Amino acid sequence: MSKLYVGSEVGQLRRVLLNRPERALTHLTPSNCHELLFDDVLAVEAAGQEHDAFANTLRQQDVEVLLLHDLLVETLAINEARHWLLETQISDYRYGPTFAKDLRSYLSEMDNEHLATILLGGLAYSELPIHSSSILPSLHRPLDFVIEPLPNHLFTRDTSCWVYGGVSLNPMMKPARQRETNHLRAIYRWHPTFAGQEFIKYFGNEDLHYDNANIEGGDVLVIGNGSVLIGMSERTTAQGIENLAANLFKHQQAKQVIAVQLPKSRACMHLDTVMTHMDVDTFSVYPEVMRNDLATWSLTPNGNGAMQVKSVPSYIKAIEQALNVDQLKIITTGGNNYEAEREQWNDANNVLTVKPGVVIGYERNVYTNEKYDKAGIQVLTIPGNELGRGRGGARCMSCPIERDDI
């Protein structure tokens, strides 16, 4: 059996978790998309076809593709997992004890396929055929959601991230995404692919409120050589980084975490929207955001169970030292200032490396792709006219589960 291990961003990718966008997208409307963290409403069928093209491109590169919906259906087939998910996602605190009990009872009659579809894709009050004496239903209109859809599950990168020999089950910043993590907790605990396998759960697997310790996988780059680069963005906090770092060091899975402070803006929601690793010594960077003077810290274990945190002058220098390279090759977003800003918005810098020097990116980012090509990086292009509206590229939409070291 292959090992659950991610040793880098650029080593040969072997197994990856994706989520094909389906029912959740059908619930996106102009009036609710912003609270569901989407900038726009997507054409559902076209988005699905584009996603299939992405999955097939990965398969052609000998990458095994796992689909979240299928894993969830197979996890729900295990009684203990089904019971835990219904109790957790339909909790007494979320719905009040009366309505939670009635709702759980209704959902527990569904087959696994239907239940997975509802948990991922949402349910409106108008679709609920049960009567409950709880106050809650009478306070809602028919089109309000009993179970909010989870369209951001498309971005499997964020909810959990594998770092060397383990996984972080990320406490997400925004309420619209927090329920996603429980699906991954159930899958990693009960699904046959993961149950009984040797891997560490660093963080986020307890039934706790993690307070200010937020972390999302789009900010976590496993650059290799025992180092991890993490962005402090609008979604990842210093508290989240320090908790993850403490557990990486405790389990001796990393020797350094480099933390870099990003501007809090929607255009760079996560580090990987402005910087990705393409080859051992090569990064794509959006220079408007990734300036050389960004505040950067190095976190290392100090040998007695605590860690040393020190400010370092440059994230570039810190990466060069971590990777033992003399000088990083930095490829900036292509085109003039207007084109570069447009292409960064359309995820030109958010590419998924499948092996050193070979990446997957959206075909629409012509200027940047041309620059990558000239720098010797092969770009396997996928359509992204619909998928890109969710503000996430190939890296955002993929959660590597198995990848070689550099």
Short description:
The protein is α/β, with parallel strands linked by helices. The chain has 13 helices and 20 strands.
Q: Mind explaining what this structure looks like?
A:
By secondary structure, the chain is of the alpha/beta class. The chain has 13 helices and 20 strands. It has two domains: 319 residues, L-arginine/glycine Amidinotransferase, Chain A (5-stranded Propeller); 77 residues, Pentein (Orthogonal Bundle). α10 links the parallel β10 and β11. It starts with a strand and ends with a strand. The model has no long low-confidence stretch (mean pLDDT 94). Keywords: Arginine metabolism, Cytoplasm, Hydrolase. It comes from Vibrio xiamenensis. GO terms for molecular function: arginine deiminase activity. One of its GO terms (biological process) is L-arginine deiminase pathway.
How is the topology of this model organized?
Layout (H helix, E strand, L loop, with lengths): L4 E2 L6 E6 L4 H4 L17 H17 L3 E4 H9 L2 H11 L2 H4 L1 H12 L3 H10 L1 E2 L20 E3 L8 H4 E4 L2 E4 L5 H16 L9 E4 L16 E5 L2 E6 L5 H13 L5 E6 L13 E5 L2 E4 L10 E6 L5 E6 L2 H9 L5 E4 L4 H9 L6 E4 L2 E5 L3 H9 L3 E5 L16 E5 L3
Parallel strand pairs: 1-20, 2-3, 7-8, 10-11, 13-16, 18-19
Antiparallel strand pairs: 2-20, 4-5, 6-7, 9-10, 11-14, 12-13, 14-15, 17-18
Helix pairs in contact: 3-7, 4-9
Features:
406 residues; alpha/beta; L-arginine/glycine Amidinotransferase, Chain A; Pentein; 2 domains; 5-stranded mixed beta sheet; 4-stranded mixed beta sheet; 13 helices; 20 strands; globular
